[in-house]
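seq:
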Amino acid sequence: MDSKKIMICDDDQGILDVLQMLLELEGYEVLPQLNSIHVIKEIMIHSPDVLLLDLWMPVLSGDQILKAIRSTPEIKQLPVIVLSASGDGNKIAMEVGADGFIAKPFDLDDILLKINSLLPN
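struct:
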């Protein structure tokens, strides 16, 4: 069985490191992405099974990235879980087509449950 690929896009290296460590321990292949500008291209190249996307990032914000994903036919079906410390992050995430939302600071078990619920079996 191939391990599922999880792409994480967050401008906080610490969060990327923690999530990468956790998800690799769970057997996932992790594609960390610090720079939001390259995310769409990286999705096209690597075809992740799920994207964890931070909402507030410099240059391209998570909602802008998600709008771009949802309007790109090849990748618009990609399951996206938005991460945000923002109070209205959930509302924003749902408006732009997220499949799930996790508030920061997050509970690692929540993230695993959300990812597992979105992965094809």
